[in-house]
Structure of HNH nuclease domain-containing protein:
Amino acid sequence: MKFELEESNRGILDEELLEDMRRSAKALGRETITIAEYEERGKAHPSTIQRRFGSWTKALKLAGLQPSRSKIGITDDELFENIKTLWISLGRQPRYDEVKAPSSKFSAGTYEKRFGSWSKALGRFVAWVNSDSPDQPQQNVEEEQSAAGSTVQIASAKRSTRREISDRQRFRILVRDGFRCKSCGASPLMKPGVELHVDHILPWSKGGETADDNLETKCKQCNLGKGNAFNA
Ligand SMILES: [Zn+2]
């Protein structure tokens, strides 16, 4: 269904081409469209549009679409998730010049554009990490009661947190504990392959809350070794 801009097609108005770009972008639910995407969905051939308007970017602009897809449709959450991943891989706060491929999915420039500066982005990130407060009550109490058998009495006490540790809370604890096992000090930053877990100090099944002060970082070995200290 493509039509090329041959002699016979010169009558197609600029506006028709631009409208077709808008239509195609809209069909994708976006404010922009790539050449490859348009080639699949558009009525005209992308090269027709490029020739007519000088470049794809110029055509996007004339159509009132966004200049490129890369910075569109990225949510703040995705940007923050990327900082979290970067932070974990470095074991510390990423520096401006470290925010680049391949370790970072987004460039420092993307953060500057969104938040004004890298340090502002970090400020927003910290707020994002801390905004995940453990305030969803009592969701797993029933399950826990049936699974925990004899501990039903204790577990049925009112809970102010749910059992699950969120990603952001896990991150907070890792940062607080310096990405080290609280028992033996092992850290993946010193020794690749060390696996860190964030777990309850007083187990949730024993009434321990999923609160920062009842969570700690342990390496996999120590975490498994901790065994049943509380179940003895
Ligand atoms: Zn350990």
Notes: The CA atoms of residues 81 and 222 lie 28 Å apart. Residues 7-62 form one domain. The longest strand covers residues 196-200. The chain has eleven helices and two strands.
